[in-house]
């Protein structure tokens, strides 16, 4: 089965969920081609990129460094040079659709069409993120992209994008795509609100390789030290400012607690200044960006995972953070918020404790519960691991995904 996997920038260390699907489908005998943008800057690369030779499977269908108009003209010329002039009526129709939906799409679509016209048809086009799925649907109308279309919906594409572009932004995609794959029940409900046909929707979660995550019963250190950990980009929706505030409220009662934050992003300086203003001193450390093996080591070296996610002012929301699956798989008790699909994984009193978004007092109270009762950690950790193994195992999910795609290709 020939499968095109469409994503944003590739390789991207922050999107291990896409990488896990790519390697999983290759392991299951699929002929996978990756359609993506080149990374904006050099960064660390996951070892599986080299191990599976993924760069030889990658088609970069855009190019940096040249004006969009020049790229578009090159795209038109290259598209016509393929001698597939029979596709021209579809191409004109597709560009017209692009202009109706978003005037800025037409230039990049010409470039992408030029690259796609050199490729053989696919059985299935599996697209990550609804905004890219929208482009893929237009490229299918143009005749440049051929194959049944399945689209994953994650976070930004379900929150900010419809706000910015209007609630009808996916109207044509909902008509054309054969399969819509929200990663949570929360996003399934949102898709229906936006007008998606329920019969085209199937929740398909992202997952992790549970065998890579050792289960470890957590106990405070012999000297009483307890280490909290947050992992993620330093952006508003991660809610790290609220995590700092909650930690500050309990620090006097629990002076042996430490809070470590792994990640980087535009709010780095602001968050460091906030920690200083709260008088947290060296009890808070910012560790910078870490690659996957370093993240696993950090999870095993810490006691409690704190993910105080919030809806950003522009409406941006999480999907279902993979780091939560990873933390639970290692047996960590989790403190989080009632945000997006998080309660579908972090179940209050079962695999972790949940507070409302931006509820500093609620976060602090939940943190106190865990700091006062370390015996609770093992119970939460065992139940969290069981949930991840049952519902978020990438092996099980990739088996199911291949079955879905085969059924779609055959339909």
From TrEMBL:
Keywords: Glycosyltransferase, Transferase. GO terms for molecular function: glycosyltransferase activity. Residues 215-385 form the Glycosyl transferase family domain. Pfam families: Glyco_trans_4_4, Glycos_transf_1. SUPFAM superfamilies: UDP-Glycosyltransferase/glycogen phosphorylase. InterPro entries: Glyco_trans_1, Glyco_trans_4-like_N. Residues 15-205 form the Glycosyltransferase subfamily 4-like N-terminal domain. Belongs to the glycosyltransferase group 1 family. Glycosyltransferase 4 subfamily. PANTHER family: COLANIC ACID BIOSYNTHESIS GLYCOSYLTRANSFERASE WCAL-RELATED, GLYCOSYLTRANSFERASE. This is Colanic acid biosynthesis glycosyltransferase WcaL. It comes from Lujinxingia vulgaris. The lineage of its organism: Bacteria, Deltaproteobacteria, Bradymonadales, Lujinxingiaceae, Lujinxingia.
